[in-house]
Amino acid sequence: MSSSPDASFPHEKPAVLFTAKAQVERSSSQEPRARTSDRSWLATAWYRLVQQGVLQLQLVSGGIRATGQEEFPDSGGVLLISNHLSYYDVFVLGLLLRRKLNYVARSSLFTPFLAPLIRSFGGFPIQRDGLGAEGLKETLKKLRSGGIVTFFPEGTRSGDGRLGELKPGIAVLAARAGVPVVAAGIEGTFECWPRGRTLPHAHSIRIHYGSPIWPDQLKGMSSEQVLALLQETLRTSSQTAKDCLSRDLGLASS
Question: Which domains does the chain have, with CATH numbers?
Answer without folding.
Answer: 36-248 (3.40.1130.10)
